[in-house]
Amino acid sequence: MAYRFEFRPYCRPFRQPLKTHHGLWQQREGIILKLTDDRGRVGFGEVAPLPWFGSETQAQALAFCQDMPPQLATDKAFSILPTLPACQFGLEVAVSNLTRRCRRPELAPAHCSALLPTGEAALSAWAPLWSAGYRTFKWKIGVAPVAIELAWLSQLMRQLPLGARLRLDANGGLDELTAHHWLSYCDRGGGRIEFIEQPLPPGDFAALVKLSQRYQTPIALDESVTTLDQLKMHCFRGWQGIYVIKAAILGPPSRLIQFCTDYPIDIVVSSVFETDIGRQTLIDLAAELATLLPHYPRRSLGLGTQRWLPCDGLDDPDWEALWQRL
Ligand SMILES: O=C(O)CCC(=O)C1=CC=C[C@@H](O)[C@@H]1C(=O)O
Ligand SMILES: [Mg+2]
């Protein structure tokens, strides 16, 4: 049996640029893969690189796709270099979608986290998302002076209804002293801060462990665990906190499932702002991981809010229509 292999790159502007400690991210570029088997079954996959998180670049992913033969023998396992984790993810997803029978129902907003705009704009952005059913909000920090961001956070906490929970994501942009400021504030927040994500750069593991032992507020690793090997290393080095899993850049989903089966860890599945094709895989993955890790709290998926321009249709659940639009 053989698969016909096709691919189409995409590039779409975000509804509003994402400002983080890494800089300003204005558009998502990626590649949609399409496999067709001898029985005419079709499987779509998605390659969504995030090079500043350690994945391959769009150009490297495109070169990989251009080097792939138009017919793939199914009896040969795809050997894709570990330096191309987004391509590994995309191809495994395309193969599994060949036999996908139905779409998992869309996740209720109460089970997703909504990414608020960075800075003071968050104060006027949360209410419509609360009305839409979101109860977990994520806010980027480490972009303005700490005193100013703490003042905004105090306002935000006063405004947010009880029942709302907040995730703070520094993208590794704080120094140790500032991280102490943030964590001592959070510890006084009455548990409404679910966790602080990557307060220090990935290289400061010993300092991250010290912070996690000093404060009540949980700490999540994100940029520290962007590859499966880094995830394993931090687990084996004894990280007891949360792991933010950006599955679309972590390689084959089956390997992540296998690891979490052998080493139960506290995870949050996080988007890299893929299209609906990648997003469905994250929803499936989160559901499967939740059954594997029952003794950890069920955490909302970090899907953010769909960040595309409304006219774009990359959220289209009809993947053939999405493909035709590219
Ligand atoms: O995790 C989420 O809630 C949404 C995804 C998200 O926040 C991110 C996706 C991609 C790049 C990052 O700047 C950012 C993150 O740091 O987690
Ligand atoms: Mg993050």
Automatic annotation (TrEMBL):
The GO annotation for biological process reads: menaquinone biosynthetic process; phylloquinone biosynthetic process
UniProt keyword annotation of Hydrolase present: no
Needed cofactors, names only, are:
a divalent metal cation
Q: Where is the Mandelate racemase/muconate lactonizing enzyme C-terminal domain?
A: 119-218
Sorted keywords for this record are:
Lyase, Magnesium, Metal-binding
Q: In which pathway does it act?
A: Cofactor biosynthesis; phylloquinone biosynthesis; Quinol/quinone metabolism; 1,4-dihydroxy-2-naphthoate biosynthesis; 1,4-dihydroxy-2-naphthoate from chorismate: step 4/7
Q: Which Pfam families does this UniProt record tie to the protein?
A: MenC_N (PF21508), MR_MLE_C (PF13378)
Return the EC number.
Answer: 4.2.1.113
Superkingdom, taxonomy of origin: Bacteria
State if Metal-binding is listed as a keyword.
yes
Q: Which residues form the active site?
A: K140 (proton donor), K246 (proton acceptor)
Q: Which reactions appear under catalytic activity for this entry?
A: (1R,6R)-6-hydroxy-2-succinyl-cyclohexa-2,4-diene-1-carboxylate = 2-succinylbenzoate + H2O
Broad class of enzyme this protein falls into: lyase
Q: Which residues bind Mg(2+)?
A: D169, E197, D222
The UniProt GO MF terms for this protein read: magnesium ion binding; O-succinylbenzoate synthase activity
What role does it play?
A: Converts 2-succinyl-6-hydroxy-2,4-cyclohexadiene-1-carboxylate (SHCHC) to 2-succinylbenzoate (OSB).
| Family membership | Belongs to the mandelate racemase/muconate lactonizing enzyme family. MenC type 1 subfamily.
Protein name, per record:
o-succinylbenzoate synthase
